[in-house]
Design a protein that fits this description.
Helix content: over 70%
Strand content: under 5%
Low-confidence stretches: none
Order of helices and strands: HHHHHHHH
Mean pLDDT: 91
Distance between the termini: 37 Å
Number of strands: 0
Number of helices: 8
Structural class: mainly alpha
Length: 199
């Protein structure tokens, strides 16, 4: 979602506002009419795009998991046979973009994942596992001596670090986007290096 440069479609506008409102007030604290008002259409008009709030939530959470995986695969393909450290840096940059630009989705995932239908929740988990395993392979390409379980634990820990952005405080209290991105990148690399030192 954050990587698009063309104008968002009405469907994307609805999802963006739904994510913001759900993150701010909780899934059950937001009505269809409010989401419609946020994008300038009537609540009933939303039903031309989505069957209801449950469908919006599913598309948001399944969608971002799929986008993260697709983006990571694209970065790997673009890197080709490049240096493993450059590949890892590219993955970190991609996740930082998500963490800084799509903060409501992080909050939404943490709070509302259990509200999804079983099939949608399983799909989210499946996509996330693939995303983690892709990272594990790259981390072990940089530090071959790191055991797979250690690499996997380190990847999950780094995701926790990067996904902490909704808790970093008000935007004005941060060092700016570039400064925050640089700090998160250094911390992620430091966490992986620390995991490797213990092996």
């Amino acid at each position: 979602m954050a990587t698009r440069t063309d104008a968002p479609t009405r469907r994307e506008q609805i999802l963006k506002e739904a994510a913001r409102l759900f993150a701010e007030r909780g899934f059950h604290g937001v009505g269809v009419d409010e989401i419609g008002a946020a994008v300038g259409i009537s609540g009933p008009g939303l039903y031309r795009h989505f069957a209801g709030k449950d469908a919006m939530l599913a598309e948001l959470l399944v969608g971002i998991s799929g986008q993260l995986l697709t983006g990571a695969k694209r970065r790997l393909a673009e890197a080709g046979e490049g240096a493993p450290e450059a590949v890892l840096d590219s993955l970190i940059e991609g996740h930082i973009d998500f963490a800084l630009d799509d903060r409501p989705l992080i909050t939404l995932h943490d709070r509302e994942l259990d509200r999804l239908r079983d099939s949608d929740r399983k799909l989210v988990r499946q996509l996330q596992r693939q995303y983690v395993e892709l990272w594990v392979e790259v981390v072990r390409g940089v530090w071959p001596a790191v055991a797979e379980p250690t690499a996997r634990s380190a990847v999950h820990s780094v995701f926790g670090l990067l996904n902490s952005t909704p808790h970093l405080g008000r935007p004005g209290s941060l060092p700016g986007r570039a400064g925050t991105a640089s700090l998160l990148h250094r911390m992620a690399r430091g966490a992986f290096a620390a995991a490797a030192e213990g092996e």
